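Review form for a predicted model. The reviewer records the input and the model, then writes brief findings.
Reviewer: anonymous (R2)
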Amino acid sequence: MRYPVRFDAFSRVALLVLGATPGNSYVEVTPDSVRVAFGLYHRNFPRSEVARATPGPGYWLSRGWRWRPGAIGMIAAGGGVVSIHFRERISMPLLPPLPVPTTRVERIDITVEDPGGLIAEIGAGG
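Model under review:
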């Protein structure tokens, strides 16, 4: 199932610089993979690498590609954040779509229209 990224009014305009629009930003879950798309950044993760999904932390004043210790945030609204946790740390770019520099993270935080649905489909553990 596809879960569109939640955009607030400010982000609909401000995130155009990253190429992020409601039409090309989403999380898609299949039996084999979790695909994250946020503007110019797209990546598939095998389901076997994804441990769980949980309600994410607040990013009330932050928008765009955000870095926190252990996490990358793809934030387009103040609410609706879901944290997608990985079984092991993964390498993620700090300045997408450029492949370098990178950082190792244990989760991706992303705003979606249906956080409860995404958490239920990925699962809270496993």
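Findings: The mean pLDDT is 90.
Further findings: The longest strand covers residues 81-93.
Recommendation: see findings above.
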